[in-house]
Design a protein that fits this description.
Strand order of the largest sheet: 8-7-6-4-12-3-13-14-15-16
Order of helices and strands: EEHHHHEEEEEEEEEEHHEEHEHE
Number of strands: 16
Strand content: 25-35%
Radius of gyration: 20 Å
Helix content: 10-25%
Number of helices: 8
Length: 322
């Protein structure tokens, strides 16, 4: 569901660089606008680029993180992967944003990175808007204005907050994504509620601040192309190619990618069948352990590009894998 701003003179607080993710606590409208302007400029300053010298990447991976071509080809040579196979691999890539904890942010990005999301905690919702039906836990809050711009190839809101409610410990009965636009007065909602004359309590996960890091994702079940096929049918080593693919993803991330994290956009990295097939693309992917260290699930949210761009989040589909 999408909520329309009711009062342009109020604002949604945003996180300061190197500060804590602010959720959606009320602040003055002028302060919010000043902060949003500064944060947008900061985000643009460290957004992704393209693989220099690799024309296939420029044509198929808009906004992807910059990878030095010489380093890329050197890495390919170390794995015994020829240039034409490299280009086919890049053609199977899509940009994504990883949302990671502070300790997982690559050293090269630490100077500019700032909070953009939070797992767990309590939701801040506009007056008159209830906790979504089903009372599933809040697992993710994203400050859209704090995300790097021009990285993803799906269209997310440029401001406000996206709140994701779903169950990660077992298949959810109902789930929801709510967009709270900037400028809406909000109130943090308690976990307790009344039902059938009794007091119940929704599970609240420990809040963890997350930082955005641009990266790449690879279509897991995609055809490799004629050069890749010839490489594997000849003297090529499939294990070496797999290792090279992992190396490319690490290069795009700027370091070793975390094993359990939150991902926005790109291709899914499922444990079972990929849900992003046909007209469906990945909206978000949440490893259970990124929210609660004791939960071993993969939670994927998909939808059409059109529904995502239009904010028709009620049309999103949810898939939990174990």
């Amino acid at each position: 569901m999408t909520l329309r701003a009711a009062d342009p003179d109020t604002g949604v607080a945003r996180a300061q660089r190197h500060g804590e993710f602010a959720g959606a606590a009320p602040v003055s409208g002028s302060a919010a606008r000043e902060r949003a302007s500064a944060e947008a400029a900061d985000a643009r300053a460290w957004g992704g680029g393209t693989v220099r010298g690799m024309s296939v990447a420029r044509g198929t991976i808009p906004g992807m993180t910059s990878i030095d071509e010489a380093l890329l080809l050197e890495t390919a040579a170390e794995h015994g992967v020829p240039g034409p196979v490299v280009r086919e691999l890049l053609a199977r890539c899509r940009p994504c944003l990883y949302l990671v904890q502070d300790k997982e942010v690559p050293e090269s990005l630490r100077e500019h990175v700032r909070p953009a999301a939070r797992t767990g905690g309590l939701p801040a919702l506009p007056d008159g808007v209830d906790w979504p039906e089903g009372r599933e836990p809040l697992v993710l809050s994203v400050d859209c204005a704090a995300l790097p711009h021009d990285v993803l190839d799906i269209e997310l809101p440029t401001d406000g907050h996206l709140l994701v409610f779903t169950e990660i410990s077992y298949p959810p009965e109902s789930s929801a994504v709510v967009h709270v636009p900037a400028g809406v007065r909000t109130t943090e909602r308690p976990a307790t509620y009344e039902f059938s004359g009794e007091t119940w309590e929704t599970k609240v996960y420990e809040p963890r601040t997350l930082y955005p890091v641009p990266g790449l994702s690879i279509e897991q079940d995609g055809e490799g192309g004629p050069h890749t096929g010839a490489f594997l049918d000849g003297d090529g080593d499939e294990d070496a190619l797999d290792a090279f693919e992992e190396a490319v993803l690490d290069l795009a991330f700027g370091g070793r990618r975390p094993g359990a994290c939150v991902q926005l956009g790109g291709f899914s990295d499922p444990w079972d069948m990929a849900p992003d097939e046909g007209d469906l693309v990945l909206f978000a992917q949440l490893a259970g352990q990124a929210v609660d260290y004791t939960v071993c699930t993969m939670n994927l949210i998909v939808g059409t590009r059109e529904d995502i761009a239009a904010g028709r989040y009620a049309e999103l589909q949810y898939d939990q894998q174990t």
